[in-house]
Write a structure and sequence with these properties.
By secondary structure, the chain is of the alpha/beta class. It is built from 28 helices and 16 strands. Among the domains are: 231 residues, P-loop containing nucleotide triphosphate hydrolases (Rossmann fold, 3-Layer(aba) Sandwich); 164 residues, P-loop containing nucleotide triphosphate hydrolases (Rossmann fold), CATH 3.40.50.300; 72 residues, no CATH class. Helices cover 50% and strands 9% of the residues. Strand 3, helix 6 and strand 4 form a beta-alpha-beta unit. The site of magnesium ion has 4 residues, from helix 4.
């Protein structure tokens, strides 16, 4: 009976599935037939699109009913399986514009876990990937697709397992390539749709190699959607992606401004060494606001955040940058999303795509790299229908160049003045904190150097000029007594300037020059971004567009530069060679004994013949041939041996001396013993003398054992032999001595009434004898 029941149940489920399948098939047929007739002008709500019920309910339940401009324009085209270049202002809903087509395409293809990876979404940062993944989960909640989040900073093995059967993947470029290279479960052969959010960022030089590696691994037959507020139109980029007749969808192209209308933008001119005063004054006067502050590098964020925390402004302070541990990054992101009033200090890791709810102010404490960076940073506020304010703080030197760039990009920004009365100087406070806290001081020093480096690395030399920075004043404003050494600035002056020409692949020489200079000073590690967790983890100042220069391929300096050889770079090696060439002899200290003979000082002179020979030959050589490493090593080994031998001998001599002393002591005691026994014979009634002698320790017992271990040369051997003989003959004495001790104890008991004076008298007597 039971078996029959379950069988019937199974059949019922099977029939239901067939029914659902049939409904879906007819739904898919109905939807796809409407794709050709989508008219964006008639679309008022999402329901007007031919979308599946599952997607529509997902959108509705997530609070999306009326599509935005970009959604209206691009969803229809994407459903027609066209390649799209989508451009729309920040906060205009681009995420939904690509997520809806992703879900619909997989739905109409009747995608199931067995089909593997169907859609790939690439974003430049982990937080953005997480945010998109979250929206995908919400909107696609009624679909049965499996989605995966592949970002750095997580366990690779854990991700590897989860990749299996993953239909939609949201990822950062570095981690994705790592999986492509290392994970056998990563299979992209069935990929239908590739989405690149913040496309211009993902395709710029910072990610160039990684993205090229990814694209190589993707099937050429696929649909590609690119989205950004500052869309790339670079033919090179599009060729790399092999887009097929892409449709350029730019809903705000004819708009008066390229930034959201509800975004109020202003800027102030502020000397670099007053920036922290301005920021402090701003933070303390905006306690009831949600503020996002952008700085150039991780180290600056860390310093400003830490020092402001110490100074207790009364706001809730947070930090977000690539140098943080992944867990802390996620917590900071999450917390800032939830907070109503807070100040978040961040690098450009937070500049792109992040949709922090209700940010009131975006403050750009350091000048952005270019106008696009400005647009994205400022775009963290005034999102969707909300309003917001943006404040740019720039130095007088940056003003002209930057304003020109912003104007060119149709950015409405007005200059405002700071009320000097409301400005509080924090320099003294910082000095006091740094004086007490070494760690904080080091943080300040690092922040100082990275800022200078960032300015130095900036591509736009019309805006950024490192030579115009007053280093001392800047250092003092950070609480530092003196400016830390910025070595690369000095070395830069020594570098030859390259002529204004272009290389075969049309890369401006100025850029290559930067590369040479960069390569000159910065550790290679910085540029070794390769694959892995590096998407946004390196110090953000290096996430400038020059990051990807193939520094090893820097062209050689042209021949006509030969005459400039006079300004040859002086390296430590060449300086050392120069000194060697001069064959200078240093003074040698000599010591003499009383007779005027020179003393040999083993600590100053070479001890072995080999070493002396080597030294002489090196001095005698006319030409400086540098150091013969192999020979020097041999000589060092020899010297080391001689050193050890000398040390051993010193120790032995000291022990010998000690033994002689001990011997002398023992003899003296034996003599005393002898005298005492003869005295005892004379004064047989004087029992106390023997008691004193007995209570003295047995010297053989103490010294004899010590000297045993040192019998390692001939003399010692003979001595120890003698000692052993003596010990054998003395062996009876030991037992007698013991007996004597026993008897003396008895006597001691008997004569408890003997005073200390008596003892002293006896002792004196004994010593005199
Ligand atoms: P963009 O990527 O263009 O900067 P997002 O996709 O992050 O913008 O969207 C910005 C905000 O607008 C998000 O909070 C999102 O939830 C909201 N949003 C997007 N589309 C809609 C819509 N159709 N209806 C309501 N809110 C929307
Ligand atoms: Mg976005």
């Amino acid at each position: 009976m039971e078996g029959q029941k379950t069988g019937k149940k199974k059949i019922k489920i099977y029939k239901q599935r067939i029914k659902v399948g049939q409904i879906e098939t007819s739904e898919i047929a109905r939807l796809t037939s409407q794709y050709e007739n989508i008219d964006t002008t008639t679309i008022k709500t999402f329901k007007d699109f031919p979308l599946s019920k599952k997607t529509l309910s997902g959108l509705n339940e997530s609070g999306y009913s009326v599509p935005t401009e970009i959604q209206k324009e691009s969803i229809g085209l994407a459903l027609k399986r066209l390649d799209i270049l989508g451009a729309a202002k920040t906060g205009s809903g681009k995420t939904i514009a690509f997520l809806v087509p992703v879900l619909e395409i997989l739905f109409t293809e009747r995608w199931n876990p067995m089909d593997g990876l169907g859609a790939l979404i690439i974003t430049p940062t982990r937080e953005l990937a997480y945010q998109i993944f979250d929206t995908l989960r919400n909107v696609g909640r009624h679909h049965g697709f499996s989605a995966g989040l592949i970002i750095g900073g997580k366990d690779l093995k854990f991700e590897q397992k989860r990749l299996q059967g993953c239909n939609v993947m949201v990822c950062t470029p570095g981690r994705l390539l790592q999986h492509m290279n290392e994970n056998p479960l990563m299979d992209t052969t069935n990929l239908q749709i590739l989405v690149i959010d913040e496309a211009d960022r993902c395709l710029d030089l910072g990610f160039q190699k990684t993205m090229n590696g990814i694209i190589e691994n993707l099937p050429p037959k696929r649909q590609t959607l690119l989205f950004s507020a500052t869309q790339t139109k670079s033919v090179k980029d599009l060729a790399r992606l092999s887009l097929k007749d892409p449709v350029y969808v730019s809903v705000h192209e004819n708009a008066k401004y390229s930034t959201p209308e509800a975004l109020k933008q202003s800027y102030i001119i502020c000397e670099l060494h007053h920036k922290l005063d301005v920021l402090w004054s701003f933070v303390t006067t905006h306690k009831k606001s949600k503020v996002l502050v952008f700085l150039t590098s991780c180290k600056q964020v860390r310093f400003v955040y830490s020092i402001f925390c110490r100074m207790r402004p009364g706001n809730s302070l947070m930090q977000l940058h690539g140098g943080m541990h992944q867990l802390k990054r996620m917590t900071a992101y999450d917390e800032y999303c939830r907070k109503e009033h807070a100040v978040l200090f961040a690098t450009d890791v937070a500049a792109r795509g992040l949709d922090f709810p209700a940010v009131d102010w975006v403050v750009q404490l350091d000048c952005p790299e270019d106008a696009n960076a400005y647009i994205h940073r400022a775009g963290r506020t005034a999102r969707y229908t909300q309003s917001g304010e943006s404040l740019l703080i720039i130095t007088p030197e940056e003003e002209e160049g930057m304003m020109k760039r912003l104007e060119d990009k149709k950015i409405p920004i007005s200059k405002i003045e700071v009320n000097p009365k409301k400005l509080t100087s924090v320099q003294r406070k910082l000095e006091a904190i740094l004086a007490k806290d070494v760690e904080m001081k080091q943080m300040a020093q690092r922040a100082f150097v990275t800022y200078i480096k960032s300015v130095y690395l900036m591509k736009d030399k019309e805006v950024f000029d490192v030579n115009k920075i007053d280093l001392e004043a800047f250092a003092r404003s950070m609480g530092l007594a003196v400016a830390p050494r910025v070595r690369f600035l000095k070395r830069k002056e020594l570098l030859p300037r390259l002529p204004a020409a272009t290389t075969p692949d049309d890369q401006p020489i100025a850029e290559l020059e930067d590369a040479i200079q960069t390569n000159f000073e910065l550790p290679k590690k910085t540029f070794d971004f390769g694959v892995g967790d590096t998407d946004d983890e390196i110090d953000d100042i290096m996430v400038v567009k020059r990051r990807n220069h193939d520094l090893m391929d820097v062209p050689e300096i042209p021949l006509d530069m030969e005459k400039k050889k006079k300004n040859k770079i002086i390296t430590k090696e060449s300086a050392a060679k120069k000194i060697l060439k001069k064959n200078l002899k240093t003074n040698v200290k000599m010591t003499f004994d009383e007779e005027g003979n020179a003393k040999f000082d083993a600590t100053r002179h070479k001890m072995t013949d080999a070493a002396r020979e080597y030294e002489e030959s090196a001095l005698a050589a006319d030409t400086p041939g540098g150091i013969n490493i192999e020979k020097a090593r041999q000589v060092l080994l020899e010297e080391d041996k001689a050193d050890k031998q000398m040390f051993k001998e010193k120790i032995k001599a000291r022990h010998r001396e000690q033994r002689l002393k001990d011997k002398e002591e023992r003899r003296r005691i034996a003599r005393a013993k002898k005298n005492e026994s003869s005295e005892a014979e004379e004064e047989s009634d004087d029992i106390y003398t023997s008691e004193i002698i007995d209570s003295l320790p047995d010297p053989d017992k103490i010294y004899g054992r010590n000297s045993e271990s040192e019998s390692d040369n001939e003399e010692d051997v003979s001595q120890s032999k003698k000692r052993n003989k003596r010990r054998a003959s003395d062996s009876d004495d030991v037992s007698i001595g013991q007996q004597k001790t026993k008897s003396s104890k008895k006597l001691k008991k008997k004569n408890e009434d003997i005073s200390l004076v008596n003892y002293e008298e006896l002792a004196l007597k004994f010593l005199e004898s």
